[in-house]
């Protein structure tokens, strides 16, 4: 089957309004910040794919090992008719699940949801071509906002991979998981990928690679704001910073101004002192029990937990 036309729940105009609101709020705050979702224009999505292939960036490889080992279990335990993927990106690892479901039979529909139209166009076309019996319905949307629009009917498995849930702050995670549970029914399932807490000497290089790809990815958000909002950031004047926060157990990415400067955006003048930092991403790391507890607080019951042999990355299968 060819992929169905993308269902667009997040129009160009909504996206732009969201970006404007975030830029206005984040850049006028006492401690400047921007949410990580604005990294992912076509260039940012490409840079992220490049990150997943870096020697230092272990999460993608570790999660792939888990999925390769347990995809048949996931297909058998859930018996899902519909597979919904939140923040699907290229859906590259999801193919391991689609292969297992194809062997087992019974899966009818694949629904990838992502903010990136370019990533979705590529993934839906390729998956539709490679899985000819699957109905492929791509949804352009924000996984924190479009949960009430998920397709209904038939047993569903929602997958949220890559550790992307770590981009949410604890209170946002609780709200997200609760909304997710409300969107599901008893009998549906959630498969959640979480990067695990480990020695910072392993985590930090994954977010500060020798080739500088993550630095480029980080600065890409400034290119996005320049292009979409006509701002005049000089991305080259910001250096990439990755710091492990042992108290919150998350890594933060920041952009540090290498000199004092003023940036014009949305009619605002945003002043940066030399050395001032702008927080662009939080990527939380988890413990097995913490994941189970957060899921339980939201009304899910963790049924299985798997890791790769090195214990780097965890995948939890939970019942709604
Ligand atoms: C896509 C959110 C899972 O947090 O590891 C990679 C994004 N940022 N390198 C992550 C990211 C810097 C990634 N997630």
Automatic annotation (TrEMBL):
It comes from Micromonospora arida. Signal peptide: none annotated. Catalyzes the SAM-dependent triple methylation of the alpha-amino group of histidine to form hercynine, a step in the biosynthesis pathway of ergothioneine. This is Histidine N-alpha-methyltransferase. HAMAP family: EgtD. Belongs to the methyltransferase superfamily. EgtD family. L-histidine binds at residues 57, 167, 207, 281-283. The keyword Transferase applies. Monomer. GO terms for biological process: ergothioneine biosynthetic process; methylation. It holds the Pfam family Methyltransf_33. Residues 19-319 form the Histidine-specific methyltransferase SAM-dependent domain. Pathway: Amino-acid biosynthesis; ergothioneine biosynthesis. S-adenosyl-L-methionine binds at residues 87, 93, 114, 142-143. GO terms for molecular function: L-histidine N(alpha)-methyltransferase activity; protein methyltransferase activity. Keywords: Methyltransferase, S-adenosyl-L-methionine, Transferase. Its EC number is 2.1.1.44. It catalyses: L-histidine + 3 S-adenosyl-L-methionine = hercynine + 3 S-adenosyl-L-homocysteine + 3 H(+). InterPro entries: EgtD, EgtD_Actinobacteria, EgtD_Methyltrsf_superfamily, MeTrfase_dom, MeTrfase_EgtD-like, SAM-dependent_MTases_sf. It is an enzyme of class 2 (transferase). The keyword Membrane does not apply.
């Amino acid at each position: 089957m060819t992929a169905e036309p993308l269902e667009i729940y997040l129009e160009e105009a909504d996206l732009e309004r969201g970006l404007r609101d975030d830029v206005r709020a984040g850049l006028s705050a006492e401690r400047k910040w921007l949410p990580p979702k604005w990294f992912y224009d076509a260039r940012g999505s490409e840079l992220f794919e490049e990150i997943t292939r870096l020697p230092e960036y272990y999460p993608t490889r570790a999660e792939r090992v888990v999925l390769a080992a347990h995809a048949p279990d996931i297909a058998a335990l859930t018996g899902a008719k519909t597979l919904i993927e939140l923040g699907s990106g290229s859906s590259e690892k999801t193919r391991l699940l689609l292969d297992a479901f194809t062997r087992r039979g019974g899966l009818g529909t694949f629904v990838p949801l992502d903010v990136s139209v370019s990533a979705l166009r590529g993934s839906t076309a390729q998956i539709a071509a490679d899985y000819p019996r699957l109905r492929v319905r791509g949804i352009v949307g924000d996984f924190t906002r479009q949960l009430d629009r998920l397709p209904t009917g038939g047993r569903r498995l929602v997958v949220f991979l890559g550790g992307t849930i770590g981009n949410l702050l604890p209170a946002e995670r609780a709200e997200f998981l609760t909304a997710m549970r409300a969107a599901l029914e008893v009998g549906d399932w959630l498969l959640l990928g979480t990067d695990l807490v480990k020695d910072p000497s392993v985590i930090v290089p994954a977010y500060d690679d020798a080739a500088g790809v993550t630095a480029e990815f980080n600065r890409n958000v400034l290119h996005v704001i320049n292009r979409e909002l006509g701002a005049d950031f000089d991305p080259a004047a910001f250096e990439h910073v990755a710091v492990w926060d042992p108290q919150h157990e998350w890594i933060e990415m920041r952009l540090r101004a290498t000199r004092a400067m003023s940036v014009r955006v949305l009619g605002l003048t945003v002043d940066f002192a030399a050395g001032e930092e702008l927080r662009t991403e939080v990527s939380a790391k988890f413990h097995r029990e913490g994941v189970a507890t957060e899921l339980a607080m939201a009304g899910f019951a963790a049924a299985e937990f798997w890791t790769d042999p090195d214990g780097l990355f965890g995948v939890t299968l939970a019942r709604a």
